[in-house]
Amino acid sequence: MSSWRRAAYRTARPLLFRADAERIHHLTLRALALSGRHGPGRALCALASGARAREPVELMGLRFRNRVGLAAGFDKDGLAIEGWAALGFGFVELGTVTPRPQPGNPRPRLKRLSADRALVNRMGFNNAGAIALANRIREAGPRLPVDFVIGVNIGRNRDGGIDDYPDAARIVADVADYLVVNVSSPNTPGLRDLEDPETLRELLAAVRKVAPSPPLLVKLSPDLTHNRRADIIRALPADSAGVIVSNTSTVRIGLRSRSATEEGGLSGVPLRPGMLAATRETRRVGGNGLAILASGGIDSATSAAEALDAGADLVQLWTGMIYAGPGLIGEAISATTAS
User: Fold this and answer.
1) CA dist., res. 23 & res. 110, Å (int)
2) What are phi and psi of 31, to 5 degrees?
3) What is the pTM of this model?
C-alpha cells in the first residue's frame, strides 16, 4: 500500500471509529453504490484502492481478473456491485442471502475490537431476500467488466430449514457465477449442525439438483478440528468445486480488547494463524483439484501472499479493510500476482 494511502486512511480512521460500526458500514455501502455508477466516482475508487490490471486467473471454469475478492457479509444485498468492481476487486461474494427477507438480530450487532484489529458480529443474516438480490445483480450486469466474477452465498432463514438452501439457489442460480453454501455462521441457531458430513452431502446434492450450472462451494467454520474438517472435505460430492476457509469464530483466546467477550462471530487478525493452518490442511486433504478461497485475517500484502503460499487459490478481504483502508485491495492484488 502506498505511503500516502496508508497515511490518508490512518488520519480518517479515528473519526470513522467514533460512530457506530454498523452505521459506518451502511454509509460505506451507500457511498460505493453512488460512486460505482458514475465515471468520476469510479475513478476515485480506483485512486483510493491503487488496484492495477493484473494477469487473469482461470479457476472453477471461471476467469477472474485477479485473485482478490470481497468476502460475503459486507454487501449482503448487492447494493454496491459496481463500486466493488471500480475498486479493482477480481470478484465479489454477495450474501449471505436467504429465500425470504429477514431483519436479522437486534442492534447493536457489530462491534470493533480495535486493539486486536478484529470485529465481532451477530448480524443474523439480515437481508432483503433472494429475489431482491437477483434483481440487483441483473440490473448491475451490463455495467460490469466482463471478467468481474459474482458469487452468491446462500443460507437459511432463522425460522426455516434445510429446504431453504435449494429455494435460495433456485432464485439466484442464473445470475451467480458461483454459489456458496453457508453452513458455518455462528449467528443462526443450529446452522453449524449442517456441517455433519453426511447431512452436508445431502444438502449439496439438493442444491445441485436445482442449480446444475454454477460451481458450488462450501464455507466452513474455523472452529473445526483438523480431523472434522478432513472428514467434511472427503465427504464432498465429486462435483463440488471448492471450499472457503473460513467463516467467523466463537473462540476467544488471547484477545486484548475489552469487548472481546461480546457474543457473535469473531473476524480479523486473530483468525489468521488458524486460517493458514486450515488452508494447508485443506490443500493436503483435498488435493490440487479443489478450489480454496482463503478468508480470515488478511490485512496486508504479506498476509495475502502467505495465504497463497499455504495453498489458497484466491483470497477474500473484509475486516482487514476496516483497519487498513481501501488501499489494501491494490496491495493484496500486487502481492498475490507476484506469488
Assistant:
1) 9
2) -65, -40
3) 0.97
CA distance 146 to 191: 35
Distance CA 21, CA 39 (A): 29
- Of the candidates 122, 134, 196, the residue with the CA atom closest to the CA atom of residue 167: 134
**193 CB-contact burial (10 Å; exposed 0-12 / middle 13-18 / buried 19+):** exposed
Concatenated DSSP letters of 86-151: HTT-SEEEEEEE-SS-B--SPSP-EEEEGGGTEEEE---S-BS-HHHHHHHHHHHGGGS-TT-EEE
Q: Which of these is catalytic: 35, 49, 184, 185?
A: 185
Is residue 49 flagged as an active site residue? no
pLDDT mean values, one per 10 residues, the chain (339 residues): 84 97 98 97 97 92 98 98 98 98 98 98 98 98 96 98 98 98 97 97 98 98 97 96 98 94 96 98 98 98 98 98 97 87
Q: Specify the CATH class of 3-338 in words.
A: alpha beta
The two most distant CA atoms of the chain are separated, in Å, by 51
96: preceding bond cis by omega (within 30 degrees) = yes
DSSP code for 221: P
